[in-house]
Amino acid sequence: MTDYFGSCLCGTAKFEVQGEFDSFYLCHCQHCQKDTGSAHAANLFSQSARLTWLAGADSVTTFTLPGTRHRKSFCKFCGSALPGTHSAGLLVIPAGCLDTEFSMLPTAHIFTSSKACWDRELGVLPEFEGLPD
């Protein structure tokens, strides 16, 4: 069994995930665009992994968009996306909140019919290792 550790941006919430990830989706739905402020969400999913809060469990809040299955857990201090349990015990872990490296590549892009118009052919853009001059 693999252990993964993660935290929020301000370091208040810290957690451990024990187990394996079943899938890794890049979701382009409009709900994920809104709650990430970006082109897509990058979430790991597991039916069997266990989530344990090591610190700051009381700083984690969850928002469910009324009338949908869209749900987001986040730190109430810094707003960072954090793991949460969704319907039928499905654990959803935002990939960017993990502090432990993992080697799983994304399984698929999903809800691409909602893909942002500016999120096309990004591979042709220049790349910088840091902030450009």
What is the strand and helix layout of this fold?
Layout: E1 3-7, E2 14-18, E3 23-27, H1 30-36, E4 41-46, E5 50-55, E6 60-64, E7 71-75, E8 81-82, E9 84-85, E10 91-94, E11 108-110
Parallel strand pairs: 3-11
Antiparallel strand pairs: 1-2, 2-5, 3-4, 4-10, 6-7, 7-8, 9-10
Protein name: GFA family protein
Keywords: Lyase, Metal-binding, Zinc
Pfam families: GFA
Explain briefly what this protein structure is:
It contains one helix and eleven strands, in the order E-E-E-H-E-E-E-E-E-E-E-E. With 133 residues, the protein is mainly beta.
Q: What is the CATH topology?
A: Metal Binding Protein, Guanine Nucleotide Exchange Factor, Chain A
CATH architecture: Beta Complex
Main-sheet strand order equals 9-10-4-3-11
Radius of gyration: 15 Å
Number of domains: 1
Number of strands: 11
Mean pLDDT: 93
* Structural class category: mainly beta
Biggest sheet: strands, sense, closure? 5 strands, mixed
Low-confidence stretches: none
**Roughly what fraction of the amino acids lie in strands?**
35-45%
- Helical amount: under 10%
DSSP helical segment count = 1
User: What does the overall shape look like?
Assistant: globular
CATH class: Mainly Beta
Please report the distance between the alpha carbons of the first and last residues.
Answer: 44 Å
> SSE order in H/E notation?
EEEHEEEEEEEE
Domain CENP-V/GFA: 4-119
Organism: Pseudohalioglobus lutimaris
Keywords: Lyase, Metal-binding, Zinc
Family: Belongs to the Gfa family.
